[in-house]
Amino acid sequence: MAKFQVSENAKRKFYIDQLLEKGWTHTKDGVPVHDLPYEELRAEAVLMSFREIDTECEANQFF
Q1: What are phi and psi of 24, to 5 degrees?
Q2: Of the candidates 55, 12, 19, 59, the residue with the CA atom closest to the CA atom of residue 36
Q3: Which DSSP letter does residue 32 get?
Q4: pLDDT at 42
Q5: What's the pTM value of the predicted model, to 2 decimals?
């Protein structure tokens, strides 16, 4: 079975595209998303996904 590897640039582009699609152009510290390294882009995308959770919906509440 062939192993498929995605370059770090492709991964960065994926996260940048996700963030830009949701209107995130800068971090809370004012750093443009295009200037972030891969690990920070991934962390910003995770934060974005948490902020999208509708906590008013009973199924999404923790308590």
Answers
A1: -90, 105
A2: 12
A3: B
A4: 94
A5: 0.71
